[in-house]
Amino acid sequence: MRYLVVQKQVNVMLEQMRFLVSTIMLGILIVPATVHASLQSFVMQCFEPSGFRIEAQEDEFVGDGDGYSNSNPTFYYSSDKPKVLGEFWQATNPFPNDISRSEVDNLVPPTASESQIILQKEGVIHALNVSGSSSESYTTTLYLAEKKAVFTRIQVEITDSYTHRPMVSAYAADCDIQWLE
Questions:
Q1: Which domain holds residue 122?
Q2: Contact at 8 Å (CB) between 55 and 166?
Q3: pLDDT in tens, 104-140
Q4: Could you give the CA distance from residue 159 to residue 161 in angstroms, rounded to a whole number?
């Protein structure tokens, strides 16, 4: 009986996540990005994003702190491509006294991707990236004047995902910005 209750909870969570991802995708297709041509190109580096993760475990949802220790994601915006945000992420390094950043990068190379900017106004850039398998989506929100960022990750599918569990996470980080023009 407990299994049926948990399975129903998982199914409800999956439907909510699917709805959220569908809504975000619909926003991308229907609502054009608000883009200001006057925004300068920049590089923004953020430091050790930290936050919270909730994921389905055996028979319940479990939440815990999460983050990217000793990792500094970097973002590139070019006024030549005003609807694209370049994202560069490093793997976390929880043991910086035992393994160097370059050793971690050799084991798990940093990733580079292009996210679609779905909102850009008044010093805020909000971008979305959906994985090729569509089982995961990521958002990045950069607050340029405040030098802050917020990141979310939603994993919908169980069968083709990294952890094979539905999950959601949110992170925040302090950042530095360098204007290029």
A1: 2-179
A2: yes
A3: 889 988 889 999 999 999 999 999 998 766 678 899 9
A4: 6
Q: What is the CA radius of gyration of the chain?
A: 18
Domain count within the chain? 1
Q: Which residues contact 128 (CB under 8 A, 6 or more apart)?
A: 24, 28, 115, 116, 118, 137, 138, 139
pLDDT digits (tens, 9 = 90+) for 5-30: 444 554 544 454 444 444 444 444 43
Query: Could you tell me which residues are beta bridge partners of residue 67?
Result: 50
CB burial readout 27-40, b (16+ within 10 A) else e: eeeeeebeeeeebe
CA 147/CA 90 separation, integer angstroms = 19
CATH number of the CATH domain containing 119: 2.40.160
